[in-house]
């Protein structure tokens, strides 16, 4: 087992996996780590769908257009889930409040699901497994994925996580420096200094992409992430969420 420090600080996204199944004990450890996730008011407003069947993974890979969904040993889909609470309310003859229709309610579900994914990721990494978070599970074809997973009303995908034995070990991707991530006491307002630090980081990412192993590009960080945001701003997730009976109004 890796130490917590090794698991957290040496993590990298793995997109190529050995065709090798996980042991039952490994899967149970990951599942128990998920179950022990801290959640808002212990509401546990999330669920996880685990795919191990090669045919199911291959079919989902075609929908998501991410090959690691097919080749990983275990693919986990983390979802906001208010359906179980609806069933629980029915048990005691109460009506479920429309919490899921508020910005805070949906955010609570996303946070719960994201914390669960973090627990799963660290549990897998601690055992020497590789992981890769896949947001396209949420955005590429949400209606088709909801049908594929048979999601009931009140449930919506947040993110996917590929887990398996690594068949690559890519270079560590540079992250923003500590001073651009963690601020003391209040948000930073030394704008010109921040711009210079962002410029230096942008160049660091460009140099990394030019010299990294396993395929090089000339991508920087600023334009690359802005282009992604431009594309992502056109996703029509509001309609998908309405179809799943999550109608955010306020």
Walk me through what this model shows:
The protein is built from 11 helices and 4 strands; from the N terminus they run H-H-E-H-H-E-H-H-E-H-H-E-H-H-H. With 250 residues, it is α+β, with helices and mostly antiparallel strands. Strands 1-2-4-3 form a 4-stranded antiparallel beta sheet, sandwiched between helices. The model has no long low-confidence stretch (mean pLDDT 96).
Can you tag this structure with a few keywords?
250 residues, alpha+beta, 11 helices
What is the overall pLDDT average?
96
Say how many strands there are: 4
Global shape:
globular
Helical content class:
40-55%
Sequence stretches where pLDDT stays below 50 over 5 or more residues: none
How many separate helices? 11
The percentage of residues in β strands lies in: 5-15%
Going across the biggest sheet, name each strand in turn.
1-2-4-3
Structural class: alpha+beta
